[in-house]
Amino acid sequence: MPDCPERIHERARYLQDVQARGESDIRTMLNTRDGSIYMSLTASAAMFDMVRAIMENVPGTNAVTTILEHPSSFDAMTYYAQRTDKALRVAPSNPETGGVDVDEIVALIDADTALLSVMYASNISGAKFDIETLVERARAKKPGLFIIVDAVQHAPHGVIDLQKTPVDGINFAPYKFFGCRGSGVAWLSPRAAMLPHHRLAAKQQAAWELGSPAPAQFAVVSEIVDYVTWIGGHFSDATDRRELFVQGMHRIELHERALLHALLDGHGAQRGLRQMVGVDVFWDHPDLTRRDLIIGVGFANLHPTDAVREYERRGVIVYERVASSLYSGRMLDSFSLPGAVRISPLHCHAPGDVERFLAVTEELTAI
Ligand SMILES: Cc1ncc(COP(=O)(O)O)c(C=O)c1O
Question: Residue 239 and residue 96: Cα distance in Å, rounded?
């Protein structure tokens, strides 16, 4: 729509409503009423901006992150640690869980830590980080610590509740959730939003949006929330949108856990990945409640890249994670793995899809 939402026409007012609904729906997803919403072009861009504001303005001589972070936060932390002369402390991964232990992160925090940046779940292994405990223990060690969370991987797979995990910044990407590319959504706490940042001087200090907004990107978020609350409505009589959203996400989580179980241990007559000769399941933590629906596997007879091609020939799209990739090398190194095939289905898959996938996988072991 060509009209600018910042005008007074009827169409502009309609676009303002679309944006207001989208903002309200972002708050529904995260369970927050205060703070600032920042819609950026990508989740990565929003992350760099949030890291910058905190690193440049919050006193401290060090910053803490983990080896499993996506480059969007790891590289932002590295860049701004250099620019602000802070030491970057990096917590190691745990090859058994595929995640990072809270103890390892908390051990790096002290009174001089300016920022902790950590992901909600690993996009390589699917391991969820215990953010609630981490926030509590990190702030017990340094009261008032600024914390940013990358929720890009986890947001489509589980409930996020900022009332239980009161961090200072969090981001997600609508395209991971049936939305489209071209936007990254961030939320900043009131104190983080007030830090100096790029801003039109006449706007409020806590405003982060720069330039005229894109209402369509807000409409995308509302569609996502409509969809999840629609699922929730099948299982609850609630009328509150957040309650329905939580119920919908909970059902998505349960369905995905069942799919994960079927992938690992088989379904119907089809044996699972764990039982297949010639297939190695990596980061196979037995407690499925600690994992998003992602599995990393290796083939005895196929390089990950060849396996991805063979899958594609059979109508299955998976992704190779190899040590030479800028998106996965650091993380794989931390697990001493040269590569993996990453399988990342979604709740819209059904048990029959899993059976077909497993049959194809078994076929690949015999190539
Ligand atoms: C965990 C995680 N963080 C951040 C991103 C960055 O998202 P984008 O490339 O859309 O900015 C991704 C993308 O895959 C991701 O998986």
Answer: 42
Secondary structure (3-state) at 164: coil
Q: Distance, CA 188 to ligand 1 centroid (Å)?
A: 18
pTM to 2 decimal places: 0.97
Find out whether 229 and 236 touch, Cβ atoms under 8 Å: no
189, 75: one domain: yes
Q: Is 353 exposed, middle or buried (0-12, 13-18, 19+ CB in 10 A)?
A: middle
Do 186 and 271 belong to one domain?
Answer: no
As for ligand 1, residues whose beta carbon falls within 6 Å of it are: 42-44, 70, 72, 119, 123, 150, 152-153, 173, 184
Q: Which of 265, 248, 189 is nearest to 34 (CA)?
A: 189
**SS3 assignment, position 187:** strand
Residue 37 vs residues 168, 214, 294: alpha-carbon distances, Å: 12, 13, 29
Question: In the block, which residue shows the tokens 């058994």?
Answer: 96
Do 180 and 318 lie in a common domain?
no
Q: Specify the residue with its C-alpha closest to ligand 1, atom 12.
A: 152
Tens digits of residue pLDDT in 12-53: 999 999 999 999 999 999 999 999 999 999 999 999 999 999
Query: pLDDT tens digits for 251-274?
Result: 999 999 999 999 999 999 999 999
